[in-house]
Structure formats: C-alpha cells, structure tokens
Amino acid sequence: MRRAKGYQDLDENAGDSRPPAPPMPLPQEIEMASVSVVPDDTFTVTQAVNALGFGWFQVKLSLYTGLCWMADSMEMTILSILSPALHCEWNISKYQQALTTTVVFMGMMLSSTFWGNISDRYGRKTALSMCGVLLFYYGLLSAIAPNFLWLLFLRGLVGFAIGCVPQSVTLYAEFLPTKQRAKCVVLLDCFWALGACLEVALALVVMPTLGVHWLLALSTIPLLIFAIICPWLPESARFHVASGQPDKALETLEKIAQDNGRPMLLGRLVCDDSVGIGQRGRLKHLLIPQLRNTSLLLWVIWMSCAFCYYGLVLMTTELFETDAGGGEACAADCRPLQTTDYMDLLWTTLAEFPGIFATIFIIEKFGRKKTMASQFVIFAICVCALIYNTNRTFLTCILFLARGIIAGLFQAAYVYTPEVYPTALRSTAVGACSGVARLGAMITPYVAQVLLKNSITIATAVYSVAALIAAAACVALPIETKGREMKETVTATGL
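Above: the chain sequence. Below: its structure as tokens.
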C-alpha cells in the first residue's frame, strides 16, 4: 500500500470519527465513495503534466528560462572578444589570455555540483534566484576591474554563479509533457544563440568607441532583468513531491491547469517518496550500480561537448585574426578585431539556429544516442577540414557548419541527461555533468589559443580525437530515452 501522505484529500469529512447525523444514506454514500472510487482514481505529477499539455504556462516558463540562457550566452561569448581586447589594453601574453577564459570555467566547474545540491535540497527556484543576483553583481564589478588580477578574480566569481544556469533546464524539462520535451529543450538553445548574436552585435557597436569595460557593463542588462523576474518563477512540482510537499505540488499543477485552460485531474496525487527523502542531491548516488555506466559515459560526452564547443568559439577569433594578418603575428603586436572580424563572427554564430532546427528533426526521428554520436563524427570531419584553410570564405563556411553541429549536439546532451535520471537526483546529475564539462572548457583555451599558434594540424587533431571518443561513448550509453517518461525513482533492476 502506498503511504497516504501526499494524497489529495477529496473528502475532508471522511476522517471524522463522530457518528453521522440522520438520515443515514448520505454518510453511507460518502463512505462507499471513499472506499470504492477514490483509491482507484490516482495520478502522478508526470500524468498530470502530460494531461495538462503544453500551453501558456510553458510559454511563460520558456521566456523566463530562455532569458537566463541568453544572459549566460552573452557572458560566454564575451570571452572570445575579451582576450584580444585585453592583449591590446594591458599587453597580456597568450597564456594570460587563455587564463582569462580558464578561470571562468574553473569557477563553473567548482560550483556546478554545489548548485545542483542546492537545487535538489532547497528547490530549483531558490538556486536560480541566488544565481541571478550573484551573476549580475559580479558581472557589473568586472566592468570596473582596475587591473588584470582583479579581473581574473571577478571573472572567476562570475563563473561560480554561471554554474547554476543549467538548473534552469532541469526546471524547464520537469514541466514539459513527454511528447514535447525534446523539441522544447532543444528550442531553448535559440535563446543561447540569440544571446551570442546579441553580444557580437553589441561588441560591434561598443568596442570601437567605448571599449571593453563598457561592453562588460552593458552585457549585464539581461542578468538584471532575470534577477528581477526570479520571484515569478514557479517551483518544480516534481521537487515538491520528492521533498514531501504534495500540497504545494497540487497548487502548482492547478496553476498549470488554469493557465493552460485545461480541467484539473480528479483524484489523489500519488506521492511516491521511495527514493528516500533526506538523501536527495548526493553526488555519490550517481555512481550506484544502476547509474554508474550512464554517469561515467555522460561525463565523457559532456566534457568533450564543452571542450569542442568553446574550443571552436575561441578558434574562430584566432583563425580570423591570423587570416587577416597574413600569417602568425608576434605576441607583442596588437591587432584589435575589425568590423569584418565581428561580421564573420556573427555569421558563424548564426549557424546555431539551423543546427538547432536540424537537431529537433533528427533527435525525434532517430533518438538521442544516434543523434549525438553522428553529430560528433560530423564535427570531427569539419574540424579536420580546417587544416586546408585556403581562404576566408572557405574558413567561414567550415566554421559555420561546425558551429551549427556542436551547438545542436550540446542541446541534445541537455535533452538526454534530465530524462535519464530520477527526480531526486536530476539536478545533482545535471550539475555534475556541467561541472565535468567545465573541466574540458578549462583545458580548451590552451589548445585553441596557444597550441593553435604553433600548429593548426595538432590543434585540430586534438579536437577530432576528442569528438570521436565522445561518439563512441554515445553509442555505449545503456538507455535510449526517446518517448520515455521522466522517472521518479530508481528501482533495484535499473531506472
């Protein structure tokens, strides 16, 4: 028998021990109804979300979480613009330029599991609200950093706050019906691509006149807006159920029904707390026998994803700079990015949009595993083609294709990961994967910005090998989540 805790009480008088007043048939009917009807009429959060469908509630949540992703994208895209600008302003070396990027990812890596733990223990909304305020505060302070060391410190704190952003995907995915979940999560990347394009366009206008410090300041505006709207974010109904708060979960489900114009399900909400309340958000549970292979393979995939994605972003400005300079420049020379560089960077960033829509079609038709594996292989081929850099047009086309592929791949990983883990570990799992991914992102500046200057062949070979290893990991994943409902528990035999 399931525990009664967490069930919707349809008849408040059913537990009244006092003898009913005459006439007798009415209490007898209530008693019969409570015995024969209510126990057979139960539903879970998953069933409720699927029944209430996709509507105005999910549209609002898409805009809220999309703004979070857009702000995150702007803070990431600025890294490729920040390095050459600081090289000119403070005469920093290539290793210091790489360190400017690495320190951000180090902060993200160190904080990802921390934010995942906060999200699973205290709620997705709580974690995101803290993230929004801290990200805006440290981002704004970065704009007035007086020297390189202060900038490194503040950008590291920005990275620490950014480590929470993946939890917005967890919150978003938990409110999506099964049939729409994959395409909606992938479409969320449109906000990331929009943020990247907006940052490049902002740099095109601001950099020639106001400089990099004003660019850092103006880039925090979306962060401020997100911090302001955080109080309106809904808390996950799945989190409320997993944390033993079924009444709050019912309130959220009723809000969905109201916003979507659908009737609320009748019956009792099944509150299955067999996962173990009080054991939520523990990293060691990702390595239990039922989850160990999935977790280890996903860590390889996420690390390769971040290594390849951010490597390509950084390589883009480096390759354009080298191409425009007619060869390798002396480390002491300063060549700020020109209008043509920003335009080409904008074109390659726009590649994320077709990559997103292609991923939506492929992931629903062929499944998550095959989609990610094939995209890694295509990316490896594209990166190898960079060796034959004959002219700027060819370079732009190859970078356009590779950027679209790796952007879609990253979102496919964001689709798969929340689907394969149970509610009690979902945020912790996403946080752990994000943390491991930042390890790859920390290494990539030394390949894309330092090694590339010495040998483009070796640099591209490193990215190709990483992509092929990740493709093999995708094939080896034990579970395909296409058409599969998000699970609440881990059973003795598996997920």
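The CA atoms of residues 16 and 310 lie 63 Å apart.
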